[in-house]
Write a structure and sequence with these properties.
By secondary structure, the protein is an alpha/beta fold. About 40% of the residues lie in helices and about 20% in strands. It contains 13 helices and 7 strands. The longest helix has 14 residues. The two termini are about 35 Å apart.
């Protein structure tokens, strides 16, 4: 969707941003669930699977037989069941807020999804693992076996050091394994209505008054930042695929851009969403 910049959000944007900073994390999660724009893996795991299967097919790949690791998977492991149904041999989900498989709320949701998908609960328990904790504190040995693929959906834009996350993903992979991340570069405030507005503020103003903490933090990295970080994290064949962009919106916002972003061409500035890809050296793939 392309939004018009004929009028800027101005004072309303700033006031709402400052107000959001005063709210506790629990209240922000409640608002997110109320609006229905929360984690896709929790809300619509079937649609999320379609998106990832489309990317896999376009790149000549399949989930069949893979050990896949999803970072930032959310509280519930619903998407993990869909990955198993799609043929993944083993699924490991990692999230700071993840609920254990045996947690009553988790178990109830998963058993209901198992019935819909035709999966055996015992089989799921044997092939699905949920790890609750800090991604950076997790070592490769805790996965049990090396991963064939590590991926995420709209996670990297919410971490302070994406390169550190990417480097950790590399340690989890077998030689030749791949890491793929769908990154949402838009301004998340006001339900993505002004996707480039956050780029008009200085780092000091953004961090002091408008940016949030925890899982709601937005780092304001652009496409080239992620490509460089993935290469420096030790991946090879690093590429990205743009899935959504708005060059007209980028041109319209340019007169108000902060100098940190003013030098970017419209083709780069206007990127709103992309798939970031890298391969761990070695192996056959």
């Amino acid at each position: 969707m392309v939004y018009s910049y004929t009028s800027c959000p101005g004072l309303r944007y700033i006031l709402i941003g400052v107000l959001r900073r005063q709210l506790p994390t629990a209240a922000l999660f409640w608002i997110m669930r109320l609006r229905g724009d929360g984690n896709l893996a929790e809300q619509t795991p079937d649609l999320l699977l379609q998106n990832w299967q489309s990317w896999m097919q376009q790149n000549g790949r399949s989930f069949t037989g893979l050990h896949v690791v999803e970072i930032g998977s959310g509280r519930y492991a619903r998407f993990g069941l869909h990955l198993l149904k799609a043929g993944a041999r083993r699924v490991t989900l990692v999230d700071f807020y993840a609920l254990p498989v045996d947690h009553p709320q988790q178990r109830e949701r998963l058993r209901a999804d198992c019935r819909k998908l035709g999966l055996s609960w015992d089989e799921v328990r044997a092939r699905l693992r949920v790890i609750r904790g800090d991604i950076l504190a997790l070592n490769a040995g805790q996965l049990g076996e090396a991963a064939d693929m590590v991926f995420s959906t709209a996670v990297l834009e919410h971490v302070r050091d994406p390169q550190a996350i990417l480097a950790r993903c590399r340690t989890w992979l077998r030689p030749g394994g791949i890491s793929v991340h769908l990154v949402d570069l838009r301004d998340h405030n006001l339900q993505f209505r002004y996707p480039f507005e956050m780029l008009t503020f200085s780092d000091a103003t953004w961090e002091r008054w408008l940016n949030l903490g925890g899982g709601f933090y937005v780092n304001r990295w652009r496409a080239h930042d992620y490509v460089l970080a993935m290469a420096e994290a030790g991946f090879e064949r690093v590429t990205y695929e743009v899935t959504q962009q708005d060059r007209a919106g980028a041109q319209a916002i340019r007169p108000r851009l902060n100098r940190r972003f003013a030098g970017l061409p419209d083709a780069v500035l206007g990127i709103e969403m992309l798939y970031l890809y890298g391969r761990k050296p070695g192996g056959e793939g």
